Amino acid sequence: MPTSPDASPAPASPGDAPLGGAAVVSAQAPVVPVTGTATAAAALTAGGALALLVLGAAAMAISPVFVRNAEVGPFASAFWRVFTALPLLALWAGIERRGRRGRSSPDKPLDRVDPRVVALAGLFFAGDLAFWHLAIMHTTIANATFFACLAPLWVALLSRVTIGETVSRTTFLGLAVCVPGAALLILHSGNGEGSPLGDLYGLVTSLFFGLYFLAVRRARAALGAGATTLFSSLVTTAILLPVAILSGEALLPASAAGGLNLAALGLVSHAGGQGLLSVALGVLSASFSSLVIFVEAVAAALFGWLFAGERPGLAQIAGGCLILLGIALARPRRAAGTSSNDDTGRAIRPLVVDTARGNANTADSKVD
To answer: Full-prediction pTM beyond 0.85?
Structure first.
């Protein structure tokens, strides 16, 4: 792997980090290409990864449109969302695997994959979908959506202790701006009163989604985006199928239109949304990536306007602007006096965190 003359020492071995693998945190920025052989993501610039992440958030935001017209119950639609994406994810992972084999050599073997991390990603995403639907059924949609949007808070609080990845002050600043923005965007439009139980389900949803971010970030140290999304989705599917059956909901749509909406849910919102999220997590830190997912709330309001005639009011517009401002404040920044990328497109001068000792070593940089 090419390095700049000023590059930091090589990362610690995978076993040194809490979930396997050293964390790499760039100076003054959440641009942290993962170590390992997931080179498809490593070739991305931070700007490219951010663009893909925003596109993925939009793909996830349109999912309520598909769910509303799927003609099956919420747990059944959650199962079909993941299951219908599997063929495309398998194709993606196969193409990715052939490319990785071509880049491996005896002196540079493929990294060892920890199946527990991938399984945890699938488990956490199943918990996210299940508790999200429970929240919708027990509280207002506005409350459920707002509490589910708190996932970046969990990621910021848990990144250091779970994957050894530090969180910059600018990311916390962006989070402090985004949360009130989400409240303005979502809560003012709620009808009726929520229930404490339903609100708790929404909060648990955010915890599971935050843990999903962290697990995918760790898995991307050794797996490509396609393989990570495929294998975690297999675990999610295996969990959600019995949940859907035990719920007593109709598993099959009543018409071809319902089936097309389920297919779109899987291909667009899961393969597209979660897949692009996995790509971005190979380049951007988990904390900053989770912050960008606030864009999902902005896109959902836009789709509600376009497809359901739900015109946003001034409070919603102000909330959306606050979210965009918060993301702009936390965006990846180039260290002063350095070029942002090397000739492969990777961010240079990374700050390498020795998570076993909690110390940071770098040539001439610091973390916010």
So the answer is: no
